[in-house]
Specification:
The chain is an alpha/beta fold. The chain contains 11 helices and 19 strands. The chain is 31% helix and 25% strand. It has an 8-stranded mixed beta sheet. A 6-stranded mixed beta sheet has the order 8-2-1-12-19-18, sandwiched between helices. The longest helix is centred in the first third of the chain and has 23 residues, at 60-82. The two termini are 39 Å apart.
Length: 401
């Protein structure tokens, strides 16, 4: 049988893999998505659903965030045309974000950071005490500065991934779950197939979209990239009357995101869901793939949140969950072709921003793969940069993946 369409295997069915599958299937490629478990069941299912521009300083990641923010409503509208229920389940909410400083030093840093963002085109508005109280009646009055970012938004992350996957399947993609990639099949310097727990999968291109497991997967394929897991934990309250109306976080959050420290980093991030529960984060710590919840971490997260919302004291917490974010030492995503193994592409390393950046990353990948003009300069995300490439010796983290 003659084969006329380029075959692409997307390795990973989290939100980034689903977004890539949709873009590539819409471009007319023959797409197969594989995952060792179920779609959107790992990192994607353990996120908060942030679509943010407020936490990124000027540079390539902010450009990618702004591209993604423009694309999200368009993508959801296209999904809604085929499957309105899937689009509604995403719970797209352009609620905006509010950043609050509670110290003089925090106020100075927030003011400087926001000025740099405005110069790069990000919209933000200074809130005085009255404006903050009107926007968030229950937030602390012990603040030194507050800024409103109207472009920040939120989705239900697993539902968002499902909607993107539905879009991919509607465009002709196929899905294989419970299919673990075990190794590479090569011909010279070209990747021609992968051995899996369900048999051989051949394709012309392979996309490593395995999130925090991208490092382990790339090592199995013989082209390691330095993507590591970084743990985060979230508290979920019982449903409350309307209490939090935006995504609200303290000014320390940006510093925690940008830190490379292995020890625990916490900052207050508080937002409500449509069901009434309040999500309380955030923490960052590098502990490999240790998935145990730590009471001391949850306590530290709760203490930071109470500084922002004292009225949450005594509110019951009905559960806590944690997940692993794909961390790269230079804090930039990895998007592009592998220089060592023809046919292998990487899309990952978004850390805690993968939900928001997924659609922009997928659009960028599609344009790169098809050698089309890109919406932005993709060079900063290239695979062959010092923070990403390393030798083929598995690390202890990878060996336990």
């Amino acid at each position: 049988m003659n084969r006329t369409r380029t075959r692409v295997a997307v390795l990973g069915a989290g939100i980034v893999g689903c977004a890539c599958a949709r873009e590539l299937a819409l471009a007319g490629l023959d797409v197969t998505v594989v995952d060792r478990g179920a779609a959107a069941s790992a990192t994607t299912a353990h996120g908060e659903g942030n679509v943010l521009v407020s936490d990124k300083g000027p540079g390539p990641e902010l450009e990618l965030a702004r591209l993604s923010r423009r694309l999200w409503p368009q993508v959801l509208q296209e999904v809604a045309e085929r499957c309105p229920h899937a689009a509604r389940a995403v719970e797209w909410e352009p609620k905006g974000g509010i950043v609050v400083a509670t110290t003089d030093a925090g106020a100075r840093e927030l003011t400087r950071f926001a000025a740099d963002q405005r110069a790069a085109g990000v919209r933000s508005e200074v809130l005085d005490a009255d404006a903050l109280a009107e926007a968030e009646p229950y937030v602390t009055r012990e603040h030194t500065a507050a800024l409103h970012y109207p472009e920040d938004a939120q989705v239900q992350p697993a539902a968002a991934a499902a909607a993107l996957l539905i879009g991919a399947l509607a465009a002709g993609a196929t899905l294989r779950t419970d299919c673990e990639v075990l190794g590479a099949v090569t011909h010279g310097d070209r990747l021609t197939g992968v051995s899996t727990s369900t048999g051989l999968l051949e394709a012309d291109w392979f996309v490593n979209a395995a999130g925090p497991w991208s490092g382990a997967l790339s090592t199995r394929l013989g082209a390691p990239v330095d993507v590591r897991p970084r743990r985060g934990d979230v508290l979920v309250t019982t449903p409350l009357p309307p209490t939090v109306f935006h995504k609200v976080y303290d000014a320390d959050y940006v510093g925690a995101v940008g830190s490379s420290a292995e020890e625990l980093q916490t900052s207050a991030v508080v937002e409500a869901t449509r069901g009434g529960s309040v999500l309380i984060g955030s923490s960052r710590r590098r502990v490999g793939f240790d998935d145990r919840l730590r009471p001391e971490v949850l306590s530290a997260v709760a203490a930071k949140a109470l500084r922002l919302f004292p009225t949450l004291a005594g509110v019951p917490v009905m559960r806590a969950y944690g997940g692993f974010r794909p961390y790269v030492p230079d804090h930039l995503p990895v998007i592009g072709a592998d220089p060592r193994l023809v046919g292998l592409w990487h899309v990952g390393g978004h850390e805690g921003a993968g939900i928001g950046l997924s659609v922009g990353s997928a659009r960028l990948l599609r344009r790169l793969m098809l050698d089309q003009p890109t919406d932005m300069d993709a060079t900063p995300f290239r695979v062959d940069r010092p923070a990403v490439l390393r030798d083929s010796t598995p690390t202890a983290i990878e060996e336990t993946a």
